[in-house]
Fold this protein.
Amino acid sequence: MPDRRLVPIATRPHDAPAGGLGALWSTFKEAAAHPGVLRGTRALLRTNQVAGFDCPGCAWPDPAPGHRTAFEFCENGAKAVAAETTRRRVTPDLFAQWTLAELAGQSDHWLEAQGRLTTPMYRAEGAARYTPIAWDDAFALVARHLNDLASPDEAVFYTSGRTSNEAAFLYQLFARQLGTNNLPDCSNMCHESSGRGLGTTIGIGKGTVTLDDFAAADLILVIGQNPGTNHPRMLVTLEAAAKRGARIVAINPLREAGLLRFAWPQRPLALLGRGTAIATDYLQVRLNGDVALLTGLCKAILAREDAAPGTVLDHAFIAEHTDGFDAFAAPVRAADWATLERESGIPRAEMERVAELYLASRATIACWAMGLTQHHNAVDNIRMVVNLLMLKGNLGRPGAGACPVRGHSNVQGDRTMGIVERPTAAFLDRLGAHFAFTPPRHHGHDTVDAIHALHRGEARVFFALGGNFHSATPDTAYTAEALQRADLTVQVSTKLNRSHLVTGREALILPCLGRTERDVQAGGEQWITVEDSMGEVHASRGHLAPASPDLRSEVAIVAGVARATLGDRSGVDWAGLAADYHRIRAAIEAVIPGFDDYNRRALEPGGFRLPNGARDRVWHTETARARFTAIEVPEMKLESGQYLMMTVRSHDQYNTTIYGLDDRYRGIIGQRRVVMMHPDDIAAAGFVEGQLVDLHSHFDGEVRSAPAFAVVQQALPRGCVCTYFPEANPLVPARSVARESNTPASKSVVVTMTASVSPAG
Ligand code: SF4
């Protein structure tokens, strides 16, 4: 009998509906633990309200004004608000007490729990601790480093999706006035593949549906998405559709609780029952088996059409609005069912049955998230979804369309504001004309390229507006080396995180205001704007007193750095723009189409919707038509003992923010360093539940290892395993990326396992 290292595995099978009493209790616990029940309740009652602030969680849209409830938030929104409104503070005392090395020895959960940053902090070269620094000195330090660079392209300006439109617009303006397009953002790691796939097929890198369309759809596909944890209010929308009789087809390797049953905590009676069944059909596709499955659906549909030509497909739509149909259809017709079954893990009969559901549907919406976007062929995954939708003209009409669901509250808005490493010429023309300067035209670095540039020593200053770059990115050891090779790293943050501990030679932490807090500038109290997943822009206004008098808004920080760095080289009135955000919005209105009368319309209840050509069947593609694409079915060949691994969030996590150690919906309690496997795979490997194993990833001849993951049973397709990030990010090679989008392939990592010989991780 092998010498197994075992740890107690606390599992609690979750057979209750998602939401329900569990969500209520969790919300109460978070409020009580952080801001306190009274302050917490005040903040929650303002969350997602017309005159309140936008939840700093995901980007699921708010119902129209008049249709919102008093508690317009979900459990995970409540966690995000509680975390931001916590009474706990990270003051200079903490940094005096702890060295960076000691802090680095703490867990991400512990770091998060220390509270809100209060004071700008500086780490001198070689220093073991951070020490306080005055704002102006901090700005001067950044300016010195930036102006010492041989080229502005030696600087990288990273953005996390929490950044407001106003701060994002000013940030890109500063970077471009400095002379670089090095503007990576968190979208590079999540929906970049959606942007590329949609942009090349329907002419806009955004979804085409609105919440109203969900009320009209009779078939909703939810592909590679776990809304119960990552977009929980979406369950309210799905429940309404289910109650209306719509079919909901979940396509996911994991049987996610939120896609099975849901009890809306705001309906007391629902708390007593089993909740509402959400998915009417559940396809547990193999990891990266989506193209094979979608090809199977299209193949079955084309077979029906071929059996009765002219009676099945939306020929009017295809003829009038699309091109490329024949090139797309030929390989689909030729596809071999056995290959489609093997690669998808779904039987032919199931694919044909779901194809019939699609054909019977008058209006279909396809929703997706990271399960489609983080594979080597991710862009093709998106194009295949578009192919399927176009067969029945499910684009640009009520109840139908494409719905990539964004996981960060303003990640779409930041991109709209120009946070992108390859801006369009038209955008740069308008920006240059409005601010009377010549923006750089050469493309910059996205996130993965920025890591490589830092690692090669080509990038020497790394500036992050929010986020936790070190933990959000792949190839942890490599990324850490890259950051540590910088001359200066700057983190604009609300809370302590690991990126504050993996720094360049010099480092700054610049603490900023949160969404929930009042933002008072020289021009008075300010409000910001955000854009949700469905292209709706609305105002957000904080109302709580800031966590510290020494905090500054993101806008004020960007303006401060820009003034200190550019000085008289810039004709932009940075101080004036920071004093009154109306002026920033006026500039946005002048530079970005669709923001007419911005300052007035953003304050209207619910805000306004941005133009979306595809929604109006106007295709801004190369051919001015919606484009079918011929897609090859990827074949995943695993050798004996190899598994395909995906990294995911737990239910107590938001991106890299760890609120707790439970994953209630998957029944995993009190631990995160786990590898979820099918019970038969566990037995076949000679492992037992609770056994510690070392994981080894294999890519292009390289092997990366991460020790001591506890084996946990989970209903997954054979050969597919699942871990949490950031714990498993050391296994994801920075060079393993999606074609075209350069998104880390965190859902397609080939791994092997050995019985762990090292002590528990
Ligand atoms: S669904 Fe998303 S935006 Fe809405 S409350 Fe929850 S986390 Fe916040």
Summary: The longest strand covers residues 702-713. The domain at 91-190+413-603 is CATH 3.40.50.740 (Rossmann fold). The chain has a mean pLDDT of 96. Residues 55, 57-58, 60, 73-74, 76-77, 231-233 surround iron/sulfur cluster (CB under 6 Å).
